[in-house]
Amino acid sequence: MRTLIIDDERLARNELKRLLEPYMKIEIIGEAANADEALPLIESLQPELLFLDIQMPGKNGFELLTAIEGKAPEVIFTTAYDEYAIKAFEFNALDYLLKPIDQDRLKDAINRIEENQVAPELPAEVNERAGKVLNENDQVFVKDGEKCWFVKLEKIRLFESMGNYVRLHFDDQKPLVLKSLNNLEERLDSNTYFRANRKHIINLHWIDKIEPWFSGGLLVTLHGGDKIEISRRQAIRFKELMSL
After folding, report:
1. Mean pLDDT of successive 10-residue segments in the chain (244 residues)?
2. What is the architecture, at CATH level 2, of domain 2-117?
3. What whole-number distance in Å separates Cα of residue 164 and Cα of residue 90?
4. What is the pTM of this model?
């Protein structure tokens, strides 16, 4: 995996590079000391994995992830503080390693990456259905706890990332499904469903109002009252998509 190391301590970066040497699948393509250095590297190099410190000068690790526009890489947090663990997994982190990094814990984290990359073999007809792009006329089965729905996609106005889950907004229901927003984005018809920012995909047919917003972004109001910010970068794509 193409990997960036982001940590304000040079010695910590060097130590992590040393620990990662035995893992041939980890290709370190760059390093950064802070968010300002990291963001242009992420945009230009398109890494698949970040080893990311949390407490850094300027933007912290969480703020850096929030600032990434478009599809974010996988993340393993590396930090000297254990109080951020819950918040880390709200950001869909693969793992959370405490400094000084233990070689066995690092091995577990690498194994977790490999497990996530291995897909179970399914019958051909199941694979074909799983790879099908879903449009507004498709119906999907949704289960949250004891409740179940068979809902037409055109009724879902908003998909909201909640850590390892996605919250679906339709009618007055807001069930959670165990999916990542990135995986859902790959399955949804891009002519109808638009990635507004790191946390939200909106149904374009549900847009009620559009307003200019901070830093060149847009604020859209959906029928039903949800207000969603379209990031500056995505606002450019949005205008291109919606213009004559």
Report:
1. 95 96 93 96 93 94 88 88 77 85 89 60 41 80 82 93 89 89 89 93 94 87 93 87 72
2. 3-Layer(aba) Sandwich (3.40)
3. 7
4. 0.52
